[in-house]
Amino acid sequence: MRPVDSALVLQRCNDSQGVVYYHSPLLDGIGVPHAFTTRIGGVSRAPYESLNLGNPSGLSPDQHDSADHIAENYRRLHHAIGCESRLRCFVHQVHGGDVLRVAPDRGFANGDCADALITSDSTKLLAIRVADCAPVLVATEDGHTVAAIHAGWRGVVANVVSNTIKAMDAPSDRLFAAIGPCIGFDAFEVGAEVVEAFTQRFGNAAPVRAHSSVADKAYVDLRTAVRVQLVQAGVSVDRIEMTDRCTYRDADEFFSHRRDRGITGRMAAVVGPRAAGSFG
Prior knowledge:
The chain is of the alpha+beta class. The protein has one domain: 4-Layer Sandwich (CNF1/YfiH-like putative cysteine hydrolases). It is 19% helix and 22% strand. The radius of gyration is 18 Å and the shape is globular. The N and C termini lie far apart (36 Å).
């Protein structure tokens, strides 16, 4: 696969209230509101400082960030991308391959289990949460249908990316996709179980590099794995944007489950269909 074109790179934004996020020029170009958030611009306190958008699992309630802080952080995010009136839709993420379609006539239950969401309802804003996994946003070229994907290594192996592309019910070579900040190649050290799973999924093209000194360890390039799956599903290379930002390395900008040993906040990737009547 050829190197990423320098023109196909996410851009950093800073809104008037101090919320810092990354956006895709391709998605902007079709009028789709969206963001890949950082940890900057919210009200939460350490260890969730400051734009925390979710609590980690496995901790007692007294170790959690407050619901009021998280709600205010989402309010700021919605304001930053002009989506104050939209209903945020999310799921209970389980690191699998299931995709949920959010229909206009469905009373959406924010508790269903899945790792990807699709909608054509411009009153909705889809959201997934990450703290090292890869967030992926996809849109049809008219901006009327969008998807948000949570792609950790288990989700990649479970084909969550290709499942979502198929479920969008649109020509895949006419889709736009953006891969947000996630854990980088040099930081994602894994064991034999993950190496085997990626080798089975990708064959000789598995984005895996052996550890230089530990025999049963290796490194996985999660970002490249997602990009490969998008292309395998039919998305054109020149319609995929990404970034080299690493959630583990770049602690000033991002939460990282691995770096912070589980006691950390969550970023979000959010996207909504182009508003009815907008963009001509």
